[in-house]
Amino acid sequence: MDMPIPDAQAATTGPTRALAEFVAGLDLAQVDDFARHAARRHLIDTLGAMIAGATQDATLSVEKAFAAAGIGAGAVPMAGVRQRYDALSAAYVGGTSGHGLELDDGYRAGSVHPGGVVVPAALALGAQRHADGGTFLTAIVAGYEAACRIAAACHPRSRWRGFHNTGTAGVLAAACAASVLLRHDAEQVESAIGTAASSAAGIFTFLAGGDVKRTHPGHAAREGLLAALLTEAGLPAPRGALEFKDGFFNAYAGDDAGAVDYSRLDILAAGDNHPRSRFAIANCYMKPYAACRHIHAMVDAVLDMATQDGLTADQVKAVEIGSYAVAATHGQVGWSEMTTAQMSIPFVVATAIARGRVTLADFGEAQRGDPAVLALTGRITTGIDAECDEIYPRKRGAKVAVTTTDGRVLERTVMEPFGSASKPLSDAGVAEKFLGLATPRLGEARAEAALEMLWRVDGLADIAPLAEMLAA
């Protein structure tokens, strides 16, 4: 049966307590089949991103920094990683690798990437404590619920204040996932949230360059896990940390000059749901393209023009893109580094037109200097479309008009990009993406064996062998 989520609960107990009671009381048997299958799919998708991201520069920098500091060595495996770490360091490395290639999942209503935080924290602690697969998958569902609902309650106010929800809401999600594995009651979950709130961090300085964005989920995974362990160790913590006047929501999202009363927020209703499930994980998206999700609708549009209208790069005279304000800011992002290139509307859309794809292979140094792509970037302009802005964050839409050299005007409106819960990757597509990302690191036989175990993860007696199989 469905997990009961009373509509009035948050109004009587406050959102922190309502979330804590939900997490403490969650039982996998109460999670509907649709959401449970979504949890397996998102676990597989996230682990693929983590394995592929284990060798990217930001992950290697983290490992070098840990070695220089003399910390981290332990017995806990992490997906895609050769070295074994203590649980906290393993979560940090795994979170960094999962977000490192812009391939991780997300929740549109909260503009947050839950998998890159929740999965490494749960995997590190679950492997260390030899959790069974059912409890592990329950922790994943709980962590996603926390990440998505908290981020949705903040967005887009938090974005305009400069905060990255993956880092800020993510630390609370990791704490909730770890609390499930530690079998915390509601009092303890609320304590873990209270402690984790003081470690929330992450701002949008990455739009100016550098690789710090990659570490945001790593920091959140580690600090959320630490908060749960500190709770286990008896550390006193504040109550009502989400809605308190000096708490999380007021600090990171503001109150719109008193317009928002967070104490009355129904936290478990924040954001939106899939028609077939009330659990947030069932309404998360996966990325078919290795770029910022805000750009995916635009990529869908120009790829459809190529397929349906035969559009080629040499036919493009001008590209005009209208989208919502949050997305439109990416029209001014450059592409001097891989990080910024994956956030740049001109570079990503030009790549889609010139190459007919947007993959990891399209963001290397040589590709960022490709004359065929660069010639198109200057023909692409981005602005705010009133309709797209009005419906955001309910939809992540874009309107694209391409004027060709022979005078045609090709137009597409995409209000929901491919990979969303309403336009999902098939199970075969999820498997293909995982194997494509994991096989180069693990080898074909081990990647296929790991995938087979992941599809039935909730039946495993102990996830530690799975964690070992996923490690390099």
From TrEMBL:
Family assignment from sequence similarity: Belongs to the PrpD family.
Domain MmgE/PrpD C-terminal, chain residue ranges per copy: 289-453
InterPro entries: MmgE/PrpD_sf, MmgE/PrpD_sf_1, MmgE/PrpD_sf_2, MmgE_PrpD, MmgE_PrpD_C, MmgE_PrpD_N
Gene3D superfamilies linked: 2-methylcitrate dehydratase PrpD
Residue ranges of domain MmgE/PrpD N-terminal in the record: 18-255
UniProt name for this protein: MmgE/PrpD family protein
Pfam families named in the record: MmgE_PrpD_C, MmgE_PrpD_N
Molecular function in Gene Ontology: lyase activity
